[in-house]
């Protein structure tokens, strides 16, 4: 399990703590809120606002004569309201990803993610024979790269479904994209759970204080 624990200290200067810029910290916590909100909308639509269940409920509770199709339309309308919120979360996620992308390639950024990934790989090659910390750091960075890739896929597939008519995407293709979008969502959920477990484990070991570092930026 140690391989999923993020390191608090700098690989090249183990006496120093990693620094997290304000933009990275802001992106991290906003991303957490948006993804959590997005997942909650999916959970709501698969439980409380499930069309099949609500259609039956509406028919049972209706005091007036209402057809099954009308009840289904009402249930669909309720579901669509939640999906509308989900779409807004998707827009926000896309904006946050663009913000992160711009910060990575910004001239004011000292290294950015890819620079950090390269540094982690160089540190791994330099220290691999002496310490497992370098391999650990490089592995964690690779996991983050996978997460960013999943975010790209989530954003692109989500936007493709939202603007399917404008993009000329057929209904069959849109359905396939929806399935892939959902698959990516589960992978991101797995990553988040693994990340949380890793952070909790790190807090109990050498990297105690790693959560506070992501809040206040890390102190020397």
TrEMBL record:
It is a multi-pass membrane protein. The keyword Magnesium does not apply. This is Ni,Fe-hydrogenase I cytochrome b subunit. GO terms for cellular component: plasma membrane. Coiled coil: none annotated. Pfam families: Ni_hydr_CYTB (PF01292). Belongs to the HupC/HyaC/HydC family. GO terms for molecular function: electron transfer activity; heme binding; iron ion binding. The chain crosses the membrane at residues 26-44, 82-102, 142-160, 180-202. It is found in: Cell membrane. One of its GO terms (biological process) is respiratory electron transport chain. The lineage of its organism: Bacteria, Pseudomonadati, Bacteroidota, Sphingobacteriia, Sphingobacteriales. Keywords: Cell membrane, Electron transport, Heme, Iron, Membrane, Metal-binding, Transmembrane, Transmembrane helix, Transport. Residues 20-217 form the Cytochrome b561 bacterial/Ni-hydrogenase domain. InterPro entries: Cyt_b561_bac/Ni-Hgenase (IPR011577), Di-haem_cyt_TM (IPR016174), Hydrogenase_cytochrome (IPR051542), Ni-dep_Hydgase_cyt-B (IPR000516). It comes from the Bacteria. The keyword Transport applies.
